[in-house]
Specification:
repeat; disordered N terminus; metal ion binding; zinc; 299 residues; 20% helix; alpha+beta; btk motif of tyrosine-protein kinase itk; 24% strand; CHRD1; Ubiquitin-like (UB roll)
Amino acid sequence: GLLSVYFFSSLSMKVYINHSSQHARDGAPEHKVKTTLPASWLQGPIEKVIGLFCKQYNAKFPDHALDPAAMLLANKNDVVLPSDGKVSDHISEYNDVFVIHKPEAKPTEQEQAPPGSVQCKNLGCGKWYLESENHDEACHYHTGAPVFHDLVKYWSCCPKKKALDWEEFQALPTCTVGRCCSEATVELFKPSAAQTETVAPMTEAEIKQMEAPPPPPAPVVAEDKPGPIVDGKARCRNKGCTVDWFVVADNHPEACHYHVGGPVFHDTAKYWSCCSHKKCFDWDDFMKVPTCTVGPHKV
């Protein structure tokens, strides 16, 4: 009777699975289903949810069939959920999740180059070229070697143009025009005479200071007010939690996987203060750093 219905609903999970127009390819129709995941699925992998949706989608739209192995699941904030992750760790009751395509591997410049191409070894160029098409203005490059001193990056031939960020360094304009060359003409990382005269060797204390991790950010003392509860659901305020909304009544001591520390952005490195040994330089890699703590969701 009513008791059995209540017991079943407390174990299962209702979710909305979407394939929206922004994620569809080749004119494939968007589709949204409300489905109930059985209790046995909540401890299983997310890839099973992907397979369930693809099976229903392919039955409805056979001309635009989705390959489950080529799909991922993301939450409404576009955070990709691990396909081998446990459903209950990343999805909560009534969440909207989105089936999206895995990024297509882009062909490398070498794969796109014509047969017989060789790579230019002039610094700052690096393109693939055919010797039959080489000429005196084919290459834009640097005549000097790269210099990395402390956090500063520049080319020894262009010492007045410095950068701190790696992308800014790669975007520095070249200084020489000539023919592409398939043999290296500059010895990398060999200090020039000018550099030896102007840059004093670093002391052991300075080296240790550079290698030491940055000090943790000063704690911000603020009133910790609980967030709003809407229809019995709330957003988890633990850092690093991937669950959008959770049912407050279903919260338990192992419901949330999160970081106890805050995010740290130092130079181009990104990491969590509680997991300082796991540093990333790419934002997507930083978002995938495994959490370190298990506990209840924070209202």
